[in-house]
Amino acid sequence: MDWGMKNRLSRLIKPDGHCFFLPIDHGYFQGPTKKLERPEETIAPLVPYADGLFVTRGILRACVNPENNLPVILRVSGGSSVIGKDLAHEAITTSIQEAIRLNVAAVGMSIFVGSDYEYDSLVNLGKLVNECENYGIPVMAVTAVGKELTKRDSRYLGLCCRIAAEFGAKVVKTYWCEDFDKVVNGCPVPVVMAGGPRCETEREVFEFVHDGMQKGAIGLTLGRNVWQHDYPEAMMKALHAIVHKNASAEDAEEIYEDVKNS
Predict the structure, then answer these.
(1) Which residues contact 65 (CB under 8 A, 6 or more apart)?
(2) 211 three-class SS
(3) Which of these, 118, 121, 158, 207, has the minimum number of CB atoms within 10 Å of its CB?
């Protein structure tokens, strides 16, 4: 791994080997989803607790202060909306030249293993890795499932993560599931956890994040369970403690309550 690649990864993954990314890329297929109508207002109080932003070029330019030195993972895939026929029908939408112009630490794209567009997304991943390797830019592969949330089990996600790593992704973002250690153990590159739809309770979030960290994830990239929450700053502080201070779910809940009530 050359110097540029190592340097960019070190900006995202902290000295303890862990990371907490804040994804605000949902608008590329959901439009102005709840609590993300004005992204700049939503993320402003949360940035101090994040290790990086996962964002599209449009929102990066329009809503993120360029004087902010928080590392950026640039979303470079898209092409389908939530009201379209198939969310899996994506292509690369953003060039490597854009990534360089925006001084990003990494780029990210979705793969849709088992869908009608499996081949397209995997070939796109391979092409993206080929191009990014020329410039020392890491690629994060996102094991997306579209609307089929029932696919989130260890056998399927383990398959997705391994394929993403085989194609050259430096980091893989995937969902937590039961037997999450099987997913991590079969993937030779770091794994970060996605959040998915809103959970019913804060404790539910803290428990799955803690379990995933104990089973080998290096961190998480959690969006809706943070910025759609009534107390997003309290959620960020609590989750940050699990990721970087090895806090338990119970510890995190105490931090959440303290911040919420302060």
Answers:
(1) none
(2) helix
(3) 118
Q: Are 211 and 253 in contact (CB under 8 A)?
A: no
Which pairs count as long-range contacts for 61-69, CB under 8 Å and 24+ apart, including other chains? 61/102, 63/38, 63/39, 64/40
Which of 35, 151, 170, 173 is labelled catalytic? Answer: 173
Which segments within 128-190 are labelled E, that is strand? Answer: 139-143, 171-175
Q: What confidence score (pLDDT) does residue 150 get?
A: 62
Let me know: does 80 contact 89? Beta carbons within 8 Å: yes
> For residues 56 and 84, is the Cβ–Cβ distance under 8 A?
no
Domains plus CATH for the chain?
Answer: 3-195 (3.20.20.70)
Is 173 noted as a catalytic residue in this protein? Answer: yes
Question: Nearest CA to 145 among 173, 184, 169, 182?
Answer: 173
Alpha carbon 85 to its chain's center: 24
The tokens of 74 are what? 């640039």
User: pLDDT tens, 93-136?
Assistant: 999 999 999 999 999 999 999 999 999 999 999 999 999 999 99
Nearest-angstrom CA–CA distance, 214 and 109: 26
Q: Is 115 left (phi over 0), alpha (psi -120 to 50) or beta?
A: beta
Please indicate, yes or no, whether the overall pTM of this predicted structure exceeds 0.70.
Answer: yes
> In sequence order, what are the beta bridge partners of 23?
54
pLDDT in tens, 189-213: 999 999 876 788 999 999 999 999 9
Confidence at residue 247, expressed as pLDDT on a 0 to 100 scale: 98
What's the mean per-residue pLDDT of the chain? 94
Mean pLDDT calculated for residue range 152-171? 95
Residue in this structure with the two tokens 């029908």, named with its chain if needed: 89
Task: Determine the pLDDT at residue 148.
Answer: 59
